Amino acid sequence: MKSETLIGLTAALLLSSALARADVEIANRPTSNMSCDSGVCTATARKAVLNVGDLATMLASGDVAVKTGLVAKDIDVDQPLTWSSTARLTLDAQASVTVKKQITVAGQGALTIVTNDTGQPHAKSKTGEFIILPEHGSVQFWDLSSSLIVDGNTYTLVGDIKTLAADIAANPSGFYALAKPYDASVDGTYASTPINLEFTGLFDGLGNEISSISVISEREADTVSFFTWIATGGIVRDIGIVNGTFSGRKSNGVAMTASLNFGLVERCWASGRVSFQTTVGASGLVSENEGTIMNSFSDVRVVGTAARRLGGLVDYNDSRATTASSFAVHSVALRDGPLTSFGGLVGENLGAVENSYTRNRLAAGKKNSDVNLGGLVGKNDPGGTIQTSYAAGPIGGNASTGGVVGFDGAKSGSITASYWDLDMGISNPSQGAGNIPNDSGITGLTTQQFQSGLPQGFDPKIWGLDPKINGGFPYLLAVPAK
To answer: How far apart are CA 140 and CA 454, in angstroms?
Structure first.
């Protein structure tokens, strides 16, 4: 199994575990099992609660540190928290800090996050992380001169796209964070990708969203996205690009978050429209993935003419790449053009796809020829693997079509525990792959079967099932669907 695959699985397990168990919970219940003295509150039992009102009162008077100590492990911010003083809040956990609601630093205050604080400088196990639950949690700073420190790294707070682009251009390896949501409609239309360089640093959106951004390029061979290139070692996380418009003509790739990812895209989401006329690839979140994408999703309409690869989330997943614990919903449509790998989640896969799903509506025009159309993956090349994933959306078009994979070129056994909806997609139960009848590892299920229990092989620590969530279909605990 690829190391990136292990990373994806580990992160999903960590987040689902954190959501199920909050050792120190900042909540609206009475404070219990916490010892607070001189601005330091430390857990005295494995399960502890710090009342959010009590914490806000302490912050009004001075700095406060909330610590798990060695008896508890994680800190979970379960209720909104606001303070307007100059005080610094420190959240210090033996493992993870998870933000499920909004933290607002309304004055010139500061925030420090410490994870993996085991009390041992050379501890072997460092499995914790700073987690912001997508579309639910966020951290907002009203003053850009405030301080944010995460695991010893000091972040530059930015309030708009142009400042972020200028700061990254000056130091592509720095640490940056979006201070609060930004409405990009005031910027007008960008004629090219705003951050158009090789990014090797860390950008954290802090759970905030950039809304109504428009990037429309008419330049041939251009790439159209928010980041052109997330390089090896680069990280983009906790950012939503919503209600966006991205369009390219004769481009090398169109997607909302990044054209090329060699690093890590984590807990990112996108919504809006991606359109193209003759492109190498187009997708909702990342065009070409050569790194790791995890705990992310796309709710984007992808539509255009003539594309080599199309995907709801990613159009090309390279042999070194992993796409894990992610999903795509909305629609992908190809109006015309030959030689296309077209999938609801991934267009062409040479790497690993795991614990992911799509409920995209797929449509290939009547003039399309040589199109490999799959509910989940268009073309699964030699070396490509697909595990514990599913597709549940309508599929239409004149193409080589499979419920999960349009064309499976990988060796037998490369696909395991993967499914598609017989009622919505391909109704023939032998057509899980468009080129191999009864391809191993692929099973068709009815809608009722999907909604009555987790499919065989799906880990309940990663997947959930609730009639009120995701239309009753299986959903990812790490990325709760609406």
So the answer is: 37
Per-residue DSSP letter, 436:
S
Pair type for strands 214-217 and 182-183: unpaired
CATH architecture of 182-476: 3 Solenoid (2.160)
pTM (global) more than 0.90: yes
Sheet holding 227-230, edge to edge: 195-199, 227-230, 258-261, 286-289, 314-317, 346-349, 377-380, 405-408
- What six digits make up the tokens of 437? 């009848």
Report pLDDT digits (tens) over 185-212.
Answer: 999 999 999 999 999 999 999 999 999 9
| Pairwise CA distance, residues 481 & 256, whole Å | 19
Structure token digits, residue 84: 């307007």
β-partners of residue 420 are: 391, 444
The structural domains of the chain, with segments of one domain joined by +, span 23-150, 182-476
Residue 78 pLDDT > 60, yes or no? yes
DSSP-assigned letters across all residues of 391-424: E-S-EEESSEEESSEEEE-SPTTSEESEEEETTT
